[in-house]
Amino acid sequence: MTAMNNPQFQKDLPSSATRDARKSEKSSLQPKISLFGRWLETLAHLGLGELTLRIGTNVLSVILILSVVWLMRNVYPQAKLNGTSGALAASQPTATPTLSAAAIPAPLTASQAGISRLALPHTSIPSRPRMDVITYTVQPGDSVFGIADKFGLKPSTILFGNYANLKDTPHSLRPGQELNILPVNGTYYEWQAGDGLNAVAKFFGVDAEVILTFPGNHLDPDNIGDYAHPNIQPGTRLIIPGGVREFTSWQAPIGVTRDKPALARVMGAGSCGKITGGAVGFGTFVWPTPTTNRRVTGYNYSPETNHRAIDLGGKIGTAIFATDAGVIVYAGWNDYGYGYMIMVDHGNGWQSLYAHLSQVNVACGHSVGQTELIGLMGSTGNSSGPHLHFELMNTVYGKVNPLEWLPAP
Ligand SMILES: [Zn+2]
Q: How far is CA 198 from the centre of its chain?
C-alpha cells in the first residue's frame, strides 16, 4: 500500500487547502510528523482531544523506553552468545572425542625434551655449520687430500673417520667406498662397553665436555650420569671435535735391523730370521728408480695422512735399485697393503723399504750394493696403479721425507 492509495494520507497531503486553514500551527511541522503522530492527530480530529494526545504520548514513551531496556538486556547478549557459540559449533566435530588419561603421553621434563623448538609456521633453513656425520662415495681420481679439501677438513680427519675402510693409510682409498665425513676436524670413536668419558677424552687429547656437548653426538649432559660409567650405549659413534690420535697402521716398524729382523714378523711371509754380518751402507742415498721415474705421481710424504713415504710412478717392471748398500731383512709378501716388499738394513741406523713390487729379486740375508737391482715395480697389495712406495727410516729420526735425503732427480 502506498501513501497515494491511502485515503487517510491523501487527505493529509500539504496540497489540501482546507487542512491548511484549519490547523495552520501544525502545518509547518507537517513534513516531519511520523506515521504514529498522524494517527494521534486523527484521533484528535475525531474529537478525543488534547488530553488523549498527551496521555498517549507519555504512555508510548514509557513503552518505548521499556522496550529498549528489554532489548538491551535480553536480545543483544543472546545474539552475541549465539554468534560465538555458533562459530564454535561449526568448528567442532559432531561427536565429542573422549580421551582416557592413559592415552595421553606424560609431559616431557625439560631434561627429557632436550632442546625445545619454537613452532615456526614457516620452515626456514638457516645457514649454520653442519653437526652430523655425512657419507661420501669415493669417485675415481679422488685422493684423501682432495676429499679433505672438498669438505674443508684436514686429511687426517678423513683417515680418523674411516679406520674400517682406510686402515689409516690413503693407499686404501678406492672408488665406490662410502666414507664418513665428520662435521669438524677430529676423530670418530665407537663407544665400547666399560669406557669412561674422561679416559676416552684424554686418549684423544680433549676435555670430556667437548664430546658431551657437541650437538652432533646427541648426548644429554643431564642424563649422562657418572663419567666413569656414562649412560652411552656401546656401539654409539661419537665425534671427538679436535681429537687426535696416533695412526695405528700396518706400516713397517722402524728398527728392523739385521739384529732384529723379527720385528717385521708381524708384517707377513717376507720376514727374515736373524742375520749376521753383511754389507753396510755409506749413509748417502741414490734414487731407487731410473732417471725417467723420479717423479712423485701418487702420495707425497705427508705425516698428516700417515704417508711417510713417496710414491714414484712408472710402468710395471721398471727396475728398482737399493738406495744404499746393506742386508735384506724382509723380502716377500706383506699382509697389510705393501704387497711384495723389500726392506734393506743399511747397518748404520738407516733402513729403506720398497713396496707394491711385481717381482722380488733378492732373498733374506742377501747383501746388496748401492744401486743394485733388487726388484721390479708393480701394483701389488694396497695399490691403485703401478708405482714404487719408497720409505727411508732411521732408528733415531724415524721415517724421514726421502726427498730431503735424495739428490736432485
Ligand atoms: Zn705410498
A: 25
Residue 179 neighbours by CB under 8 Å, 6+ apart = 135, 136, 137, 138, 147, 158, 161, 162, 165, 166
CA of residue 309 to ligand 1 center, whole Å: 6
- Give 324 Cα–ligand 1 centroid separation in angstroms: 20
Cα 339 to Cα 252: distance, rounded to the nearest angstrom: 12
Residue 211, CA distances (Å) to 69, 191, 323, 330, 406 in order: 75, 12, 47, 43, 44
Comparing C-alpha atoms, which of 356, 302, 355, 309 is closest to residue 145? 302
Query: How far, in Å, is the centroid of ligand 1 from the Cα of 310?
Result: 6
Q: What are the tens digits of pLDDT across the range 131-189?
A: 999 999 999 888 888 898 889 998 889 999 999 999 888 878 889 999 999 999 999 99
CA distance 358 to 340: 7
Question: CA-CA distance, 132 to 161, in Å (whole number)?
Answer: 12
CATH number belonging to the domain at 261-404, selected among 3.10.20.740, 3.40.50.150, 3.65.10.20, 2.70.70.10: 2.70.70.10
With beta carbons less than 8 A apart as the criterion, state whether 192 and 203 touch: no
Can you state the angle between helices 49-70 and 35-46, rounded to 10 degrees? Answer: 150
Cβ atoms of 237 and 190 closer than 8 Å = yes
Q: Hey, do 134-241 and 261-404 end up sharing a CATH topology, with the first three levels equal?
A: no
Q: How many other CB atoms sit within 10 Å of the CB of residue 90?
A: 7
CATH superfamily of 134-241: LysM domain (3.10.350.10)
Quote the ligand 1 centre to 197 CA distance (angstroms). 36
pTM of the predicted protein model: 0.53
In degrees and rounded to multiples of 5, residue 91 shows phi and psi of -85, -10
3-state secondary structure of 191: coil
Q: How do residues 265-286 score in pLDDT, each as one tens digit?
A: 877 889 999 888 999 999 999 9
